[in-house]
Amino acid sequence: MDYFNYEDGILYAEDVAVQEIAAEYGTPLYIYSRKTLERHWRAFDSAVGNHPHLICYAVKANSNLGVLSVLAKLGSGFDIVSAGELARVIEAGGDPKKVVFSGVGKTAEEIEYALACNILCFNVESESELQRISDVAVRCGKVANISLRINPDVDAKTHPYISTGLKANKFGIASDRALATYELAASLPNLHVVGMDCHIGSQLTELSPFVDALKRLLTLIDQLADKNIHIKHLDVGGGLGVRYKDEQPPLPDAYAQAMAEQMQGREDLMLILEPGRAISGNAGILVTKVEFIKAGEEKNFAIVDAAMNDLLRPALYSAWQEIIPLKQKSNATPTVYDIVGPVCETGDFLGKDRKLAISEGDLLAVRSAGAYGFVMASNYNSRCRPAEILVDENQAHVVREREKQKDLWKGEHKIS
Ligand SMILES: Cc1ncc(COP(=O)(O)O)c(C=O)c1O
Ligand SMILES: N[C@@H](CCCC[NH3+])C(=O)O
């Protein structure tokens, strides 16, 4: 459930009319809801119950400083994949001791920075990376906490671009190399083995692949214990899906409970979850203005001021996200439109064949845009990135200014 709802035909973000925020800050504009973020994070946290655990929000889903600071205040941990994400977590008030560092290509510079910040652990994805972390730790006179990301070879049954736990994927260490790699790690004096990790994919809509992966990892943990290598935490990654159209993913509490259930009798093993999309996905919308209505020979187009550079998911994955008007028009007749942006690509669309009663100048909201929205935005076609606003109770705050580029452009051409 989120806090973007209609009241008397007007779309509200919490208690603020979205059209008022758009009038103040312009479009295209991402709007996030603090209450929704909090509700989702708490759903994970409370459903695990008393089992020792840490919810490490996946920063890649939405790294807005306002969003991170809401989660940091709840006591969240963070899953990062770059030094830039670590810097943002720290700037937002997050605790580096609750940070896990994932990703297949960590540079020596990033490792050094993360060591200096005393992060919780590195989720190591290859033997070469293990060696690099050891080398950097020796050079810095530090001991690095490490967890190996195991590729459990489980089919996540999701879009092939966001499936990560199969043998054919670049992620993690193959299960049959796991024991040898742990033995190598345990033999390196500047490494401290603390955990085991996996992440099988994103936008999963079934529980069974998560449970399968977790069980496979528990078997490995027992085999390691026989070799006197003791794992302190099990990190099952993120990947829980959200409802964009008619998917029916398990809710965060059902998912977290199912994970905790598998951990019964293992109270010494901390459970780490890395949800991204399930926390921020439905906590955000993208607001855009209809610039032109264009009747083509075969299709009608609504040309809006947001484009694939602002929200890439439809173009990249043919992802479907709901598009709704900010003001409902109860007695107008709807027409079927492709909702397209101004970018010079035929693949530049936000939605296809959408039935809407709209006119030029109307404002629309693309729902479920809080995850993998702004973070994947670019300056393609030398367009400015959209602004982002976090609605916090009754106030709207600007949390990331529209880029300076716009000032430059206005200045050069003397457009007021
Ligand atoms: C290692 C890791 N953890 C967590 C996540 C978060 O995934 P999601 O947003 O699907 O929960 C991802 C992205 O898929 C990831 O690669
Ligand atoms: N960017 C993807 C998710 C990638 C998950 C990252 N490992 C999406 O929008 O669905």
Describe this structure in words.
- The chain is 30% helix and 25% strand.
- It has 416 residues and is α/β, with parallel strands linked by helices.
- It has 2 domains: 4-32 and 281-413, Beta Barrel (Lyase, Ornithine Decarboxylase, Chain A, domain 1); 103-273, Alanine racemase (TIM Barrel).
- The strands form 3 sheets. Strands 4, 14, 15, 16, 17, 18, 19, 20 and 21 form a 9-stranded mixed sheet that branches.
- A hairpin with a 2-residue loop joins β20 and β21.
- The longest helix is centred in the middle third of the chain and has 19 residues, at 208-226.
Can you describe this structure in just a few lines?
Its cofactor is pyridoxal 5'-phosphate. With 416 residues, the chain is α/β, with parallel strands linked by helices.
What is the element layout, followed by pairings?
Elements: E1 4-7, E2 10-13, E3 16-17, H1 18-25, E4 29-33, H2 34-48, E5 53-58, H3 65-74, E6 77-80, H4 83-91, E7 99-101, H5 108-116, E8 121-124, H6 127-140, E9 144-151, E10 173-174, H7 178-187, E11 191-197, H8 208-226, E12 233-235, H9 252-262, E13 270-273, H10 277-280, E14 284-295, E15 300-304, H11 313-317, E16 323-325, E17 335-340, E18 349-356, E19 363-366, E20 387-392, E21 395-400, H12 405-413
Bound molecules: pyridoxal-5'-phosphate and lysine (LYS).
